[in-house]
Structures are given as structure tokens and as C-alpha cells.
Amino acid sequence: MCNMIVAIDQYGRIGRDDKLLWHCPEDLKHFKDLTTGKIIIIGKRTLEGIGRMLPKREHIVVGRDFHSSELIKELQKSDKFTAIHISGLDEFLVDIAEDVDSAWVVGGAGVYAYFMPYVRRLVISHIELYDEHNPPQFGDVYFPYIDLRDASTVNVLDVKEINDRNSGVKTLRIVEYLFE
Ligand SMILES: NC(=O)c1ccc[n+]([C@@H]2O[C@H](COP(=O)([O-])OP(=O)(O)OC[C@H]3O[C@@H](n4cnc5c(N)ncnc54)[C@H](OP(=O)(O)O)[C@@H]3O)[C@@H](O)[C@H]2O)c1
């Protein structure tokens, strides 16, 4: 089992060109609050899009080929950084089962898809965007399918009216879904 955190817009998009489609400091703060001091399980492409490690978090980076990435070669010098081949993830899942709350799966789509069958706690930031910034066809990475009606518990953690046309974000609604 695992915990997962994601921000999704009204079209199911989570990113484009290895980046997010929006800039929402309120949501970044929420992400930081939940993941600081924890292990984060992150896809190679997402890490490359960020371009650095996130402070005060242990990183498990998932990929198939790490040799072609100069960034990953550099980060492997850190004791807070481990690169895991996707074929080793089953074993890793057994390890984190001992203490599920010590780790968060933080994406991207490839990593979410792998861990989806094992999700126990899913925290979604539902981001409503202004269409003029990000028209519906603009985006190339989507959150994998999950039927949220299967959640046994749904807790609304926060609702914020952002109304910021510069960042493109209209509203932010953070919801926790428990699958138990
Ligand atoms: N909105 C959010 O909350 C959020 C969160 C995270 C990321 N994102 C966005 O998501 C996008 C990146 O997602 P992504 O799916 O392209 O990349 P990703 O999941 O970050 O990384 C994909 C890479 O990881 C490896 N990988 C991991 N799991 C895999 C699997 N199940 N099947 C195949 N390969 C797997 C592959 O490495 P190899 O290339 O070595 O084979 C693949 O290239 C970016 O736009 C990022 O900004 C959004």
C-alpha cells in the first residue's frame, strides 16, 4: 500500500513538457507541508523537470535508464537520493508497507500508474484553471484513471478561491480519498 499526492485540473491534466501547467504557491505550500521529512517516490522525468532535489526529503527516483541523465549522475552523490529501476519496485513496495506513512508517491503519470493499484491514501488538489491560459487541448500528461467513488472516506481538507488570472488558477480544492 502507498500514499499518493497529485494536483489535477478540471480536464484531468497534470502537466505538459515535463512541467506543471500552473503556478499555485498555495498548493506548493500544501505539497511541502505533507511531504517534508518524508520519502518521496518520483519519476525520472518529473525530477528532470524540477531540475534539483527538494529540500528535507529523501528521494527515490524511478526509471529504467539512469546513465543518460547528467542530473541523476550528479544527484546520486547525495545520501538522500536512491535511483530504483522499475523492475525493483515490487520489492520496494514490500519495504514501505511496514511504514506506509513514511512515503509519498509524487508522480508523474508513469509512476502514478504503477502505484495506482496499491493506493491507500490519495490527496488530490483539484485545480480549476481559466481556459484562456490553458485551453482544454493544451497539456500532454494526464492522471491515470481511478474511480474516486470507490473511496471509503472522502475528506475535504481545504477550499480556496485563488482568482489569479496571471497564474491561471481560479480555485483550489484539496481532498483526501481513503481506499481501505
Ligand atoms: N500535477 C502534479 O501533481 C504532478 C506531479 C508530478 C509530475 N507531474 C507532471 O508529470 C509529467 C511527468 O510525467 P511522466 O509520466 O512523463 O514522467 P514520470 O512518471 O515522472 O517519469 C517517467 C519515467 O520514469 C520511468 N518510469 C516510471 N514508472 C514507469 C512506468 N510505470 N512505466 C514506464 N516508465 C516508468 C521511465 O524512465 P525511463 O525513461 O528511464 O524508461 C519514464 O521515462 C510532468 O509534466 C510533470 O510536471 C505533475
The helix-strand sequence is EEHEHEHEHEHEEEE
Q: Note the main sheet.
A: 8 strands, mixed
Please give the alpha-carbon distance between the first and last residues.
10 Å
Under CATH, the homologous superfamily reads Dihydrofolate Reductase, subunit A
Mind telling me the CATH class? Alpha Beta
Query: Which strands sit side by side, in order, in the main sheet?
Result: 5-4-3-6-1-7-10-9
**What is the count of helical runs?**
5
Radius of gyration: 16 Å
Please state the average pLDDT score. Answer: 94
Number of spatially distinct domains = 1
Q: CATH topology, which one?
A: Dihydrofolate Reductase, subunit A
Q: What is the helical fraction, as a range of percent?
A: 10-25%
Count of extended strands: 10
> What class, by secondary structure content?
alpha/beta
CATH architecture: 3-Layer(aba) Sandwich
Outline the low-pLDDT stretches: none
Which kinds of small molecule does this entry bind, naming each only once?
NADP nicotinamide-adenine-dinucleotide phosphate
Tell me what portion of residues adopts beta-strand conformation.
Answer: 35-45%
Give an overview of the whole structure.
This protein is an alpha/beta fold and 180 residues long. The chain has one domain (2-178): Dihydrofolate Reductase, subunit A. The protein is built from five helices and ten strands; from the N terminus they run ββαβαβαβαβαββββ. A hairpin with a 4-residue loop joins β9 (153-164) and β10. The model has no long low-confidence stretch (mean pLDDT 94). The chain binds NADP nicotinamide-adenine-dinucleotide phosphate (NAP). Residues 6-7, 14-16, 18-20, 43-46, 49, 62-65, 86, 106-111, 113-114, 141 line the site of NADP nicotinamide-adenine-dinucleotide phosphate (NAP).
